[in-house]
Amino acid sequence: MPIPPPTPAERFANILRNLSGAVAAQTGWGLSLSLIALIITRLREINQRVARLAARIREGRYSPRRSAPRRPPADRRPRQPSTLPHDIGWLLKLLPGTIGYRAQLEYLLQDEEMAALLAAAPGSLGRPLRSLCWMLRVTPPKILARPAKPRPPREKKPRPRREPLPPPYPPTPPDAPAWMQNWPRSRTRWTPPRNRGSPRSA
Predict the structure, then answer these.
(1) Sign of CA dihedral 29, 14, 141, 56
(2) What does the pLDDT look like over 164-186, one tens digit per residue?
(3) pLDDT for the residue 4
(4) Which of 33, 46, 108, 190 has the lowest CB atom count within 10 Å?
(5) Is 106 among the domain residues?
(6) pLDDT at 164
(7) Minimal CA–CA distance to 98: which of 48, 147, 58, 39?
(8) For the chain, what is the domain count?
(9) Is the sign of the CA dihedral 144, 52, 131, 29 positive or negative?
(10) pLDDT of 121-161, one tens digit each?
(11) How confident is the model at residue 202 (pLDDT cuts 50, 70, 90)?
(12) Bridge-partner residues for 15, per DSSP?
């Protein structure tokens, strides 16, 4: 009976298993035992997370997790800082020999079966795979992109109140003559006619 080809989850687990072995082989070659243990623990957590999700998807038991309401800041536990490096591609910088596993991961993420697995649970698979892609400096697929955070509403600034324009002419005083009370007020200023020279003599 022919052996069926490995599933995308099995190929993913094989990559991380070999990557963990390459990290463990660095004992006594420049990396401390504590750092090696932290890296292997991170890789194992990513592998177990993806394996569990893949099994639930294959068995039809997966359902997207509903977003729970956030805790108030007073009840939120302080986040423990990670002792691993934070810059992109930090595992490649520590172990340049792991660049071959980066190529294997890039090839796997372009596989059609792997793309179907990611499409079944992009939200749940996004976090562990983005972490691994960050370690190996791999551009994750667009389907695993972080959801855009809603922008806070802009505060409407009150517009400055415009002062009314002053009248073109000062108001007529009440003690002015009667013929000035109904004087038409035009907004255009009157200018005398232009002098074109004296009239010709007859």
Answers:
(1) negative
(2) 776 666 667 777 777 666 555 54
(3) 82
(4) 190
(5) yes
(6) 75
(7) 39
(8) 1
(9) negative
(10) 998 999 999 999 999 999 999 998 877 777 777 777 777 77
(11) very low
(12) none
Phi, psi of 27 (to 5 degrees): -60, 120
Measured in residues, the chain has a length of: 202
Domain that holds residue 93: 8-62+85-138
User: What Å distances lie between residue 83 and 40, 45, 80, 127, 145, CA to CA?
Assistant: 13, 16, 9, 19, 25
- Cα 51 to chain center, whole Å? 27
- Which tokens hold the place of 52? 């569990």
Distance (Å, rounded) from C-alpha 174 to C-alpha 29?
103
Establish if 36 belongs to a structural domain. yes
CB proximity list for 97: less than 8 A, separation 6 or greater: 22
Write out the DSSP string of 129-181: HHHHHHHHT----GGGPPPPPPPPPPPPPPPPPPPPPPPSSPPPPTTS-GGGT
Within a domain: 153: no
Q: What is the pLDDT of residues 45-101, one digit of tens each?
A: 999 999 999 999 998 888 876 655 555 555 556 666 677 888 999 999 998 888 999
Amino acid at 57: I
Which structure tokens are listed for 6?
Answer: 């490995």
